[in-house]
Amino acid sequence: MTAPPLAGTVDVPSAPDPDADTPTAPDALRRAAGRVLLRNWTGASTVPSRGLYPHQWSWDSAFIAIGLRHLSVVRAQRELESLLAAQWGDGRLPHIVFNRAVPLDAYFPSPDFWRSSRAGRAAGAPARVETSGIVQPPVHALAAWLVHRADPEVSRRRGFLRRLYPRLVNWHRYLTRRRDLGGHGLASVLHPWEPGMDNSPCWDGPLRRVEPAAAGSFQRADLDHGAAADRPTDLDYGRYVRLATDYRDHGYLDADTPHAFVVEDPGVNALLIASEHALAEIATALGQDPTDHRTRAETLTATLVRRLWDPAAGMFRCHDVIAGRSVPERGVSGLLPLVLPGLPSDVATALMRTMTGEHFGLGAAVRLVPSYALTGNAFDPSRYWRGPAWFNVNWLLERGLRTHGRHPLAAELRRAALETAASSRFAEYVDPYTGEARGTRDFGWTAALTLDLLATDRRAGASDASREAVR
């Protein structure tokens, strides 16, 4: 299927004046979050951070669009349109779309490392924009559906869903066909950056097979903006570079690359399923038959449970496809299937029990769910995805709790996230025990998801008031 071209530049209305009135506390937080997104806007998309992440990131843009819809529906649409305009011919959405105006040494790996327009030609990489060659979790269709629902009339007038739908279908087709490297019906990730949880302890075992690139063969830029104790180690980076180099040197062709890292991740597949449900809604809105999307969501859910569910652990496990065994580490991606409406009730109940139990401690040891089990040998409350709490993960889990009827716990998690966003100045991630800010500040998806949680809080409050009135 060939997707129609996306629209060009559009006139985007500004967000409301942040100093227009004297705010209440939620209003103050709303305006502060809006200022972050306005400052990080480049004219076509939103950078996660002006310093540390100066380009467009794939799943960041999806989460940012979800928040932007509360400021400007057109800008939220443009966020997704600009990302999907960089889609490859084989259907993949690259995890980075590079801004030509940013100096090459501002971020590593830079466009001259990935060489997408040349090295990725056989896979259909775009010729006019440089991107990375790997992907990130497929939350985009869910984001598109939520953006559409914010103002269906504007969406229809701009042809938003009509133009994005075939591209989203191709993106999912890429994951379900070209990335089913285990042959069991689930999408595989080929690099630790693809599931978005870059240095999770879940990858330590599979990465031991990877010979790291020589230390002097690359120059990290992330340490110019963040403390080394908060970031992945040089050994981690050497292995990341080796995997990306090998993929690039084989033309980014999934079937032709001798992969040293192939993992079935429950978080990636859960978001694929959630987005298949969203595609069914999009198809219906466009007057098309949603049956294939609903059937695929059901089939993928059954496969996810059959293949990755560990009843003894009370959570899903990553699966090392090359080694043919489950990964023993308890990463938070094993809780993310809670977002799925079609999850068996006993599985959903067990996930919520694990989330609030000793391993993740929600509501007891911590107020936000950590990225890795508190009880794990590799737990570190400061280092990137090895323990800190992330706002996008907690947004997904809050949504999952509401999906499965745990409204009081969802409200508690929502309050904790909002309070932490405010106190940390929209930090990239935080210490799960103390809420102390880690990573960069004024982070794009933290600000965006703050806006969405504020809107959810208002709707939940109205629902609670309605229930009280009925009583």
What would you say this structure looks like, in words?
It is a single chain. This protein is mainly alpha-helical and 471 residues long. It has a single domain, classed as Glycosyltransferase, CATH 1.50.10.10. It is 45% helix and 5% strand. It is built from 16 helices and eleven strands. The protein has helices spanning 25-40, 58-68, 73-84, 111-114, 116-119, 140-150, 152-158, 160-178, 204-207, 234-249, 266-285, 291-308, 345-356, 391-403, 407-423, 444-470, and strands at 56-57, 96-97, 188-189, 263-264, 309-310, 315-316, 319-320, 325-326, 389-390, 429-430, 437-438. The protein has a four-stranded antiparallel β-sheet with strand order 3-4-7-8. A three-stranded antiparallel β-sheet has the order 9-10-11. Strands 1-2 form a two-stranded antiparallel ribbon. Residues 1-25 are annotated as: Disordered. Belongs to the glycosyl hydrolase 63 family. One of its GO terms (molecular function) is Glc3Man9GlcNAc2 oligosaccharide glucosidase activity.
Shape: globular
Q: What fold name goes in the CATH topology slot?
A: Glycosyltransferase
Whole-number average pLDDT?
Answer: 92
Provide the gyration radius in Å. 21 Å
Strand content: under 5%
What number of domains?
Answer: 1
Instruction: Supply the CATH class.
Output: Mainly Alpha
